[in-house]
Design brief:
Number of strands: 4
Largest sheet: 2 strands, antiparallel
Shape: elongated
Radius of gyration: 40 Å
Order of helices and strands: EEHEEH
Strand order of the largest sheet: 1-2
Distance between the termini: 138 Å
Structural class: alpha+beta
Number of helices: 2
Length: 161
Amino acid sequence: MKKIQDTDKKPILLKVSLLQPTSVTTAIVPLRLQEEKIISEQERLITQVERINQMAGELEAAILELKAIANTLNTQKGSPFLKKEPWKNICQYFAVSVPWVKRKPDKSFILTTRRVDLFRAEREAALLAQQLRQQTKKRLASQRHRKNKSGNHTKRLFKRY
């Protein structure tokens, strides 16, 4: 410690150490914190994007379940909702979409909507039914052809004798 004399002749004690250098790292630490904060915020953004898209999927499933329940009620006779007007549907459907976040090639995001296809199940069922009918027709035609072919063969055998 070094004594410094004041004008009033009272000594003031100061800590002075020339042998031990003080490290000045506090100027660099905020920069690191900023980088970590940016990375943390990017991770939060990606997590939020995933959360929104997951919730959109759940909402779409809930909408499709609503439609299935309404269809079940429409087909049941004696439904309390439809007693007065049995030809009336219990639910009407308009174009529906859910929020969706897309990622662009430049790694930025677009908050948009994704259309919910309410009648996809019906189209797929109709397509499957059509395919099954075609397969059945082919199978029946093939069986008739084989039957006719084997019938002609036996007729020829009997004609020879």
